[in-house]
Amino acid sequence: MGEYKRPVVSVVGAGNVGEHVANLTAIKELANVRMFDLARKDGDKTYEIVKGKALDIKQMASAIGCDVEVEGYTVTAEGDGYEPLEGSDIVVVTAGFPRRPGMSRDDLLSKNVGIIRTVSERIAQYAPDAIVIVVSNPVDVLTYAALKLTGFPSNRVMGMAGVLDTARFKAFLSMELKVSVKNINAYVLGSHGDDMVPLLSVSNVGGEPLTKLIPENKLKEIVERTKFGGGEIVSLMGTSAYHAPGASVVEMVEAVLNDKKEIAPCSVYLEGDSAVHYEAEDICIGVPVKLGAHGVEEIIKLDFTEEEKELWKSSVSSVKSGIERIKELGLI
Ligand SMILES: NC(=O)C1=CN([C@@H]2O[C@H](COP(=O)(O)OP(=O)(O)OC[C@H]3O[C@@H](n4cnc5c(N)ncnc54)[C@H](O)[C@@H]3O)[C@@H](O)[C@H]2O)C=CC1
Ligand SMILES: O=C([O-])CC(=O)C(=O)O
Question: Which residues of this protein are catalytic (predicted)?
Answer without folding.
Answer: 192 (proton acceptor)
